[in-house]
Amino acid sequence: MTYSIAQAAERSGLSIDTLRYYERIGLVDPPARDAGGRRNYSDEDLQWLEFLTKLRTTGMPIRMMREYAQLRHRGVGSAGRRKQILVEHRASVLERIAELQGCLEVLNYKITNYEQIESKMDTLLTHYPEGATA
């Protein structure tokens, strides 16, 4: 099946401008063109875009994505380097997850603290309906 650039953008969650940019910098191979010269993306193209989106979402720099994309064209001979890129990136993703987990723990602590304050205020207002300032 083939998709227009608008359909590919919709399905991938990327903008048309981003698709063109990815093509221009070599992350995406130029898609096939129809008789009118319009881009036609394949299911394989969309799978590659989905993978690129995962890499970008996890913070992989464009420079590394470009290296990976270039290596991909070399076939199985580049599998070792591609694996190395992904292993290194996975390590940085795991570090970021740990950092975010620590941040989440602080947020949860603060939220719990405010819930306790609100609960104490509600108790005070229940026992002293005219206000806690009396």
TrEMBL record:
InterPro entries associated with the record: DNA-bd_dom_put_sf, MerR-type_HTH_dom, MerR_fam
SMART domains noted in UniProt: HTH_MERR (SM00422)
Coiled-coil ranges per UniProt: none
Domain (HTH merR-type) ranges: 2-71
Annotated SUPFAM superfamilies: Putative DNA-binding domain (SSF46955)
Family matches, as PROSITE patterns: HTH_MERR_1, HTH_MERR_2
Gene Ontology MF annotations: DNA binding; DNA-binding transcription factor activity
Alphabetized UniProt keyword annotations: DNA-binding
PANTHER family registered for this protein in UniProt: HTH-TYPE TRANSCRIPTIONAL REGULATOR ADHR (PTHR30204:SF98), REDOX-CYCLING DRUG-SENSING TRANSCRIPTIONAL ACTIVATOR SOXR (PTHR30204)
Name this protein carries in UniProt: MerR family transcriptional regulator
Species name: Gandjariella thermophila
